Amino acid sequence: MNKPTAIKRFVMTIIFVIIGFVLTFCQFNIPFTNYTYNGFVNSIKLGLDLKGGIVAVYEASATENSDVSFDDALQATRTRIYNMITKDYSEAQVSIQQGNRIRVEVPDVSNPEQIFDSIGKPAKLEFKLENSTDADAVLTGSNIEDVYASYDSNSGEWGVSVKFDAEGAKTFGEVTSQHVNDNLYIFVNNELISSATIKEAITGGTTFISGNYTESSAEQFATQIMSGTFSVQLTLLENSVISATLGEDALRYSIIAGIVGLILIFAYMIWRYKMMGVIASCSLCVYVLLMLFFLQAIPGIQLTLAGVAGIILSIGMAIDGNIIVFERIKEEYASGKRIQNAIQAGFKKATPSILDSNITTIIAAIILWIFGTGSIQGFAITLLIGLVLSVFTSLVLTRGFMALYYPFNSAKPKPYGLSREVTTNAK
Fold first, then answer.
1. What is the pTM of this model?
2. What are phi and psi of 147, to 5 degrees?
3. Number of neighbouring beta carbons within 10 Å of residue 192
């Protein structure tokens, strides 16, 4: 690569890096539109310990006359709780622990007690053809697929829409077709809340429960009905509320610690490896940009304090990869090779060591992600992303930046921190 070409590529690289920083950290209005762009960093989903929220642990026990295994019922309940909560809190996490416990984590909750009450105080929904608590139910909450608050434009009132599963839709269609002009009574916790005359067969698999509801009360009632469909009984064992202030402080101190750590790393690398240290620092800046991008781009990732620890560890691995490369280059140059040959040989000989160390750690991160829960998974996923990026930055970006710099200095070893003196670790 000649010097004019290197200058062009260097300028293009600087432009791309600046654009990356702008897209990552800046917030601005898009000209001629009403759209406001938020940087990647503002789109990263924060976990409970950084954003505040609630943690609740429930103990599950089998219900009477259950015709499914406890494990299947527990898994079904976890899924229903997750579907119920993520309607309002998309970043909520629901997991099974210790065989019979369900852990619920909901970041950024405005009313924690409502979450506890909705899950812990389920509403038993029953459809009956007689106005009697002793009458047999033709449909129950076990046949419900979804429940949500909705507004009926015809009657001008809020209510709850109930969507049945395939079996429930079939049964509801048969009941309404066989009992046209009869009354259908809806009981919640053995209390009559609504009744209506069946005017025609309802085969769509959905029905609307009306009443004197506001939007808020309809949403709360829908949540209670949904919790009444749980396949197990839940008992609240423990709960805690993490304030948003604590989360913000933790995030602020983590960012400060990360910036201070990066500055110290940059200073050490530049002192130890001169221009090669500058190149490593540039690679590390790109690594940070890529890490922030993937944290917001990959679905399901929530950044927690444990995740921050995974990022810091992977930064260490990225720096370690650069150090291995640079030490190899110094050894090759000390053995008599020219600068260009020493650089090529250094990368070639360092590659197996970097790959070996990172692949073994990647395998460990994958195992933690598969078998871990909660904060362990948060640590594993950020570590996994960071390790992949560290290999890329060490072997691709650093090599590319070295190739860009070489035409500017192809003969003087001092700016590279190279010497013909044989070091103690030279071969």
1. 0.66
2. -135, 135
3. 13
